[in-house]
What does this fold into?
Amino acid sequence: MSRKSVIALVLAPTVVLAAQSTLYSMVTPACSAQTRLELHLAAAVALAVVLVMAVVAFGESSLRRGEPTSHDSDEAHGAVPGRFLGSCALAVASLSALVILAMWFALWVLSPCLP
It folds into this structure.
């Protein structure tokens, strides 16, 4: 089991929740200052962090694609769970990136000063 995959599997949804909390807490100051720059910056940073996790998870899942030399070796028993964990981490990180993009799209469309 790879630590990088576990980190991407656990931290990507955590980054999404932290981004949602951060964006929600920054709405009132953004409305009073009549600027959305800080909101867009927070969303961009969260998206960049999640995309880095997705790239790392993709690397973990694709590195293990080679077939082991023997089916009875330790490599054969460790490759499938590691590849599965890497693929799951890639799926979770990709879904997290889509959620951040959806929240960011709402920032572009809606004003933070709506009643």
User: Anything to note?
Assistant: The chain has one domain: 3-65+73-109. The chain has a mean pLDDT of 83. The two ends are 49 Å apart (CA to CA).
